[in-house]
Amino acid sequence: MKKVERQRRFVQQHIALFRCPVCRQPMAAVVENSLTCVNGHQFDFNKHGYLHFLNGAANTEYGRSMFESRRQLLTAGLFKPIVSAVNQLLPARELNILDVGTGEGTPLAQLAQLRENPGDTMVGFDISKPGVTLATQLPVTAFFCVADLRQLPFADHCFDLLLELFSPSDYQEFNRVLADDGMLVKVIPNANYLVELRHLLYGEGDRNYHYDNTAVVDLFREHYPNSQVKRVQYQFNLPAGMQEALLEMTPLHWGKNAKQLTDQELAALTAVTVDVSLLIARKK
Q1: Beta carbons within 8 Å of 26's beta carbon, 6+ residues apart
Q2: Pairing state between β 34-37 and 42-44
Q3: Which of 82, 139, 216, 276 has a CA that sits 20 to 30 A from residue 107's CA?
């Protein structure tokens, strides 16, 4: 079965998960190459098999080369302990899982491998077309789409887990699509995340030399007072030749005062610290 046909069948079988981002009404049917809502709004599957739910062009700086670099590092295992920590939080029963800001999709695919539960229903979305295009190439049973975090094309109370890895949040929308007693896991960087690269790029007096996630944690706790925090920290040994990909996959090097690193400086970077917090909340 061709990729587009698989994706059409996925949406047809799980049409109750989706709602129209234009009129906020339920989707009605998959007809030929289009998904239509009860009011006739139509969304066409493109040649890669995904749906584009944005009203207009996406405003993002994340291009294909960044996602290709991210794919290299994540395939090599950069985030595998994070994905494993998320998996340990989850029940064994079948889950509807939404990956918020899925990018090129590797963490969702790795979570699917760990769970080994063919009954799971997995959906990933991102605002970036290049990222979603790459995600559709993964050997995982999941549906990917281009969508707006602020206007999710998903039905109320339909996901058991929302996973958000280094992405912005819209807690009102999250609560809308989360099932009763559903779980939100938001992964955020701590001060020592990729600190070796950060300190190569910036001088000690630059504001980008340090990172503080206090405001993000405080806002999360405002919305979820009973939330928990789990820290995951480890060293990742960079495979030979992947230093340039590490630099390319992170927006750290976009800063105004970021240093242009020499080949020698990059080559000397043989390991990096991964230091994150999992912010864990249940909808009550």
Answers
A1: 16, 18, 19, 20, 37, 38, 155
A2: antiparallel
A3: 216
Nearest to 129 by CA among 198, 48, 189: 48
What is the side-by-side order of every strand in the sheet holding 34-37? Answer: 27-31, 34-37, 42-44
Give 8-31 pLDDT, tens digit per residue: 999 999 999 999 999 999 999 999
Buried b (16+ CB within 10 A) or exposed e, 65-101: ebbbbbbbbbeeebbbebbebbeeebeeeebbbbbbb
Q: From residue 74, how far is each of 80, 103, 162, 265 by CA, in Å?
A: 7, 11, 20, 22
Q: By the 8 A CB rule, do 218 and 250 touch?
A: no
Interatomic CA distance for residues 84 and 185, integer angstroms:
13
Exposure class string for 122-152: b at 16+ Cβ within 10 A, else e: bbbbbbbbbbbbbbbebebebbbbbbbbeeb
Q: What predicted TM-score, i.e. pTM, was given to this entire model?
A: 0.95
Q: Burial of 277 by CB count in 10 Å (0-12 exposed, 13-18 middle, 19+ buried)?
A: buried
